[in-house]
Amino acid sequence: MVNETVTTIIHELRRARDDGQPWHVIARIVRQWAPEASKWTVRSELRLATEREIGISALMLRRYLSTFLQIEGTAKAQGVDISALLPSSFTGAELAVRLMTRSKEAGLQALSDLRERRITIDQVREELEKTPVTETASDRAKAMFDRTDNIEHCEVALAAAASKVFGDALICERRAKLRYFRKIGFEITTAAGHVVGGGDLYLPEASSRSSDPLETIGLSVLLAKYLPSFWVILVEGHPEPVIRRALEVLSVLDHRIGVLLIEDSGNVKILRRAEIRDEALRQQGYAQLIEFFGGRRSQPKHLRAV
Fold first, then answer.
1. pLDDT under 70 in the chain at which residues?
2. What are the pLDDT digits (tens) for 233-269?
3. CA separation for the pair 207, 146 (Å, rounded)
4. Is the peptide bond before 35 cis (omega within 30 degrees of 0)?
5. Domain residue ranges of the chain, discontinuous segments joined by +
6. Distances from the Cα of 10 to the Cαs of 20, 56, 66, 120, 254, in angstroms?
7. Which domain of life is it from (predicted)?
8. Which of 100, 119, 152, 163 counts the highest number of beta carbons within 10 A?
9. Whole-structure pTM over 0.70, yes or no?
10. φ, ψ (nearest 5 deg) of residue 171
11. 3-class secondary structure for the chain?
12. Of 277, 160, 174, which Cα lies nearest the Cα of 225?
């Protein structure tokens, strides 16, 4: 039954994509398969099939659906036809929905104006940045759910791109949490399990205790000293100034650290390559760091120096 559901969704999605339909048409296709699609009971198969056959990641489908459902609910509450609140640009629609959680009136106006091409996406982004956050418990719960999904998307993207981005036969996987360092990071290893690099992930989170997503970049620079190569990993959704600033800050703090950008499509783009340095010595230093701050009683085999 699951296979049949996935096959049908893929067929309709491919047809919509080939016809050049906008994002909300694709969202409607996923929407019609609720509860299976909305609850993502077919998530793994759907993710693999969509990325392989039509080039849309499961994360993007989820974002399309989430944005569509929020606009649909708003349209019903306002007593208007949903078509009046559906811009052709998904980026604009998603930004307007986020704005709506801070100011319902401003968000509604942005959706309508985007639909009629009276404003640009950059103008909506500017309005969002200057509108204060009023966070509720449900907002926090949704943010946590979306964050988990985003991390999974990054894991899949980095695993798929490992050989191409980091080097032949290399593997990229989540690392164990390290006290006093960033919690979300990755190890780059050989097939034999030797650590040859690592990286820290910076998500574009709507709600954050800090207004600066790069506030803890110093922790990444510190960790980089214990690894043969290191990457700061950004995710599409960060404003362009944040991406530029990350490159500028690292040029001052440590220009040998590479910078990656994980796009919504799952493609991993190299913004600056990492330099390799003192490989054997740094592998041993990282193994000791993991043993001490990772709370491991003994040094794992895959972290031992070559």
1. 1-4, 34-52, 58-59, 134-147, 205-211, 295-306
2. 999 888 889 999 999 999 999 999 999 999 877 889 9
3. 11
4. yes
5. 2-142, 154-303
6. 15, 10, 19, 32, 45
7. Bacteria
8. 100
9. no
10. -120, 140
11. CHHHHHHHHHHHHHHHHHCCCCHHHHHHHHHCCCCHHHHCCCHHHHHHHHHHHCCCCHHHHHHHHHHHHHHHHHHHHHCCCHHHHCCCCHHHHHHHHHHHHHCHHHHHHHHHHHHCCCCCHHHHHHHHHHCCCCCCHHHHHHHHHHHHHHHHHHHHHHHHHHHHHHCCCCEEEECCCCCCCCCCEEEEECCCCCEEEEEEEECCCCCCCCCCCCCCHHHHHHHHCCCCCEEEEEEECECHHHHHHHHHHHHHHCCCCEEEEECCCCCEEEEECCCCCCHHHHHHHHHHHHHHHCCCCCCCHHHCCC
12. 277
Q: Which amino acid does the sequence have at 171?
A: I
293 vs 175: CA distance, rounded Å: 12
Query: Would you call 292 exposed, middle or buried from its count of C-beta atoms within 10 A (0-12, 13-18, 19+)?
Result: exposed
Tokens describing residue 11: 């067929």
Q: Contact 172/188 with Cβ under 8 angstroms?
A: yes
